[in-house]
TrEMBL record:
Keywords: Signal. It comes from Sulfuritalea hydrogenivorans sk43H. This is Periplasmic-binding protein. The lineage of its organism: Bacteria, Pseudomonadati, Pseudomonadota, Betaproteobacteria, Nitrosomonadales. The keyword Signal applies. The keyword Ubl conjugation does not apply.
Amino acid sequence: MIRLPVFLLLVARAVAAHAEIIVTDDTGATVRLAAPATRIVSLAPHITEALFAAGAGERIVGTVEYSDYPDAAKAIRRVGGYSKLDLEAVAALKPDLIIGWRSGNAGAHLEKLRSLGMPIYVTQPDRIEDIARSIEHYGRLAGSGAVADAVAQGFRARLAQLRARYGGRSPVRIFYQVWRSPLTTVSDKQIISDAIRLCGGKNVFGDLVGLAPNVSVEAVLASNPEAIVASGMGEERPEWLDDWRRWTQVTAVARGNLFFVPPSIIQRHTPRLLDGTERLCEHLETARKRR
């Protein structure tokens, strides 16, 4: 005979196991799942990486090009690129959850998938701390909450340490270069600028409109940054970073403050962004020492 307290515990566990999952995404939309997702399609490389961090990697059945971290992500079926989705391929995977990227995926694509009755969670982490919340939500949606919550807690602790270490440093005016042609930077709305602020940097083009505005060489010269930081597309320092050496009147060039941070650790909204932030902070410390 089962004692009443034990019986009530078993009932509570059974109810919890079948409880509806309700999460609000970054657009304010409510996402409802009858049970944890087991067939997830990720529509951006950083989402794939964050899902693995949240303990839900084995539940991903489809993702997009350039989803290359961790190594296990490379074996997941592709459904096009984040900006050019193959909607038929997504639907064929019969996902019980799609996680999209507001500023990366076409809105029309997301609406089409939603019209087919597929649950969609849309993410847009514009601040570093948003990454922790995203991971927690992924854990809830995939039933890996214990893993996700631990990762989020560790992320917040490390973020607090970086802020305590670099938050009071003297400002360094920085030009952050995403690409050479067209010459592309980031505004203060982009998460990279949040990393710049954490390090005590001042984005010389922070007030521009859009997440990744184009600028001219003349505008960079006129802004006279104390440091130029480039990322590019690959893991190696881009050759075009040294193109700035011809402009010897720029403070960043005169002091040798031309720095590189690999894009995989500074341009993706994942726990590794703290690695890139720390690297950026170290570069700005070097710039301060060269004054």
